[in-house]
Amino acid sequence: MVSEHARAWSRSVWVDPPVGRPYGAGMAITKVQLFSLAVSDQDRSRHFYVDTLGFELVADTPMGPDQRWVQVRPPGAETSITLVTWFDTMPPGTTKGTVLETDDLEADVASLGERGVAIDGGIQEMPWGRFATFDDPDGNGIVLQETTPV
């Protein structure tokens, strides 16, 4: 069933009366800073993301007696990933579709293979580019893609 809000939005721009601007417009959000990825073993995951994928280690600091803040990112990227173990509602291995962009898919797939990473189904061709998929040690699904320039 379509809500009244959705019907109103489809007819015209829906205005948020308290602030007088369209919903979703005028926000000061500028980027995705980081996202959390549930893992079962932070040391193993840190090794995979830093040593296998070549990510930078942004931080590895204690957060109390039984927790660590482990943050990684692709070299030079603004968005980073925190490797977390403390969210009961986020079981390790349940995240799928984290997309990493590459400029050389063949070389990266070959390098991953040499490092023991199984590539599911090889390189796939699509109208927008090419991609390959693999999992981190917990089974979180990663897409490595090379987008065709427009």
Describe this structure in words.
By secondary structure, this protein is α+β, with helices and mostly antiparallel strands. It has one domain: Roll (2,3-Dihydroxybiphenyl 1,2-Dioxygenase, domain 1), CATH 3.10.180.10. It has 3 helices and 10 strands. It has helices spanning 4-11, 42-52, 105-114, and strands spanning 15-16, 21-22, 34-38, 56-62, 68-73, 80-84, 98-101, 120-126, 129-135, 141-147. The strands form 3 sheets. A 4-stranded mixed beta sheet has the order 3-6-5-4, covered by helices on one side.
The amount of helix comes to 10-25%
Overall 3D geometry? globular
Largest sheet, if any? 4 strands, mixed
Averaged pLDDT, please? 88
What is Rg?
20 Å
- What is the element string, with H for helices and E for strands? HEEEHEEEEHEEE
Number of domains: 1
CATH homologous superfamily classification: 2,3-Dihydroxybiphenyl 1,2-Dioxygenase, domain 1
Could you say what the CATH architecture is? Roll
Topology-level CATH name:
2,3-Dihydroxybiphenyl 1,2-Dioxygenase, domain 1
End-to-end span in angstroms? 38 Å
Q: Assign the structural class, choosing from mainly alpha, mainly beta, alpha/beta, alpha+beta, or little secondary structure.
A: alpha+beta
Q: Please report which band the strand proportion falls in: under 5%, 5-15%, 15-25%, 25-35%, 35-45% or over 45%.
A: 25-35%
Number of strands: 10
Report the CATH C-level class: Alpha Beta
Tally of contiguous helical segments:
3
Low-confidence stretches: 1-11
Strand line-up in the sheet with most strands: 3-6-5-4
